[in-house]
Design a protein that fits this description.
Structural class of chain A: mainly alpha
Radius of gyration of chain A: 20 Å
CATH architecture of chain A: Orthogonal Bundle
Radius of gyration of chain B: 22 Å
Distance between the termini of chain B: 24 Å
Strand content of chain A: under 5%
Number of domains of chain A: 1
Number of helices of chain A: 15
Strand content of chain B: under 5%
Helix content of chain B: over 70%
Distance between the termini of chain A: 58 Å
Largest sheet of chain B: none
Number of strands of chain B: 0
Order of helices and strands of chain A: HHHHHHHHHHHHHHH
Largest sheet of chain A: none
Order of helices and strands of chain B: HHHHHHHHHHHHH
CATH topology of chain A: ABC transporter involved in vitamin B12 uptake, BtuC
Oligomer: heterodimer
Structural class of chain B: mainly alpha
Shape of chain B: globular
Number of helices of chain B: 13
Amino acid sequence: MNAATFAIIVASATPLIFAAIGETITEKAGVVNLSLDGSMLLSAMTGFAIAYTTGSVELGLLAGMATSGFVAFVVAFGGIRLRVNQIAVGLILTYFATKLSALLGGEFVRKPGPSVQKMSLPVLEDIPFFGEILFQQNPLVYFSFLLVIASFWWIFHTRRGLDLQAIGERPEAAFARGIPVNTLRYFYTVLGGAFVGLGGAAFSLDAKMGWSEGHIANYGWIALAIVIFGGWHPLRVAFGCYLFGAIQIVALKMQPTLPDLAQVLPIAPFPLMILTLVFLNMRVVQSFTMRFKGIGRLIRGTAPSALGESFWPD
Amino acid sequence: MNSLQQTKYFAGAITISLVVSIFFLWLLEAPLVDTAKLLVEGAFGTNQRIGDTFMIWVPLLLASASLVVTFSAGLWNIGVEGQIVAGAVAASFVAREVQGSTTVILTLMVIGGFVGGALWGLLVGVLRVRGGVNEIFGGIGLNFVATGLIVYLVIGPWSRDGVASTGGTEPFGPQAWFPTIDGLRVSPLALIIAFVSLASVMFLLSKTHFGLRLRATGKNPLAANRFGIATSRYLLMAFIIGGGVAGLAGVTQAGAVYHRLVPSISGGYGFLAILIVLLARFRGLWVIPIALFFATIAMASFQWQLRLGLHSALGGVIQGVLVLSVVLVMGYQEVRQQREQSNSRDDAAL
């Protein structure tokens, strides 16, 4: 594999990074937004539709963020204010948003539209090997790097990040310390949703260039799975996205020579992720990671304890 | 429980979804009266259409019955799509390999489909109970695997002679076709299977000791465990029964609708059934009319597209609006009711 191939992998994983990091932020706050598969389709559609009609890619990306941000708000409102099961709301919204994207996006199907333009970063692009992979990309890709690092720093190295972890792990204790649990949960759910929407719009305005019905179906589920696979840790989630991107690209490259294997490879990440989880949950491995805490921290991750549970202070 | 208040809110939710649906129709510049007329005519206008509506009703009933079992155990079985596929694959295997009379073949297809779906469901269960993999994640993962498997079979070992297309396998021999009413596509046997399955599931859950323990596991697994119920065994049983019933939907799809194996055999009915069961609030009896209504909308969608040029996704949007508004409004009703109760408790304390 040469640098050009790695560059393609990085570019193709970018929409997934936005979605998976967005969902990581949401779930860290204790809210599960299961609507991703529909939500991303809808934001891919609105993002493309707005960019197509206005000619502005930036407006398209913002429209995508607003779309999935709103979908996430419905999840938060249902789960927090109405105390409806978050999984139920998420699944209903998955279906609804998928159908809505098809219904409203009908007139934009397979139209050529604007897309994010490549912009190499001066100086950095000349770094041998890595320059081509990382810095001869477009601004969305650079923003995805920033998002991964910023979310990691925010969650684990700031005071507010500690609050974020607290409302997802032990909301009662956080509330007792004066943290406005539900307000923050609304905030992080909508924020995470906005990144999910950026991921959706990044598909139609960059990675897959254009809109057609259901053409990014399943990526939402993949993003949700990568959050679990990455143990709710932004860096490992990003690693999962790139790994997924790599498998996809390898499958694509093998299409002419090994068509049978190329058919199977696109679904391979899912069983692989499941097996990895099973492996990590095996008793032998667990006791091993208990003994060697450093390695344990590196490979294991547990869901926020209050994930999916509503919290009401009264 | 104040059922009058509940009814009022329920009616409110229906009104909201009606208004939103009409808004979408207005947005699409659809003629309201014709659209409403076609909703009924599209599903029940001719004997042919009634038959077709029933054949959408069947997999919806079966998938819903499956989900009622797993929901009762407190499980989110999103893997129901994969279990339908597994049932269809198993039934297709029987249809392709077994020679004999229609009775023998169909019986074996039903048994095989149940076992196929049950095993696929059990896999999700084992991953959850033994592997620590959440059933939503495991279920979706196995849906992908099932889709991969069916595509592999259709273009690979079971492909039609000479052509490797994703169009489907060679049709089954006539002995493996579910008998239909003359001139129609409706199979009474498939309807019987659906209703017997739903009735059995409801009986099992509400009238047996097993069902009681299963529901206890779903309501409060910790308490159930402390009470001496081997909860993980009950979770696995829920996956076996639920998966098996979902597998039957695969059997009727393969044996009574397509008469062969096609990649889209599940028709998305598994996922739609999740919405049905949520709308029915997990009660088996309510599943019957709601599933029929959803089948009606699915049929109407064809006619809306054919006769009025409306997008085929319109029906799905209406279904989504309906379920979303009912679930949210009923949630609001429960929150209000709890608040009133706690208020009146406070008053009484004074």
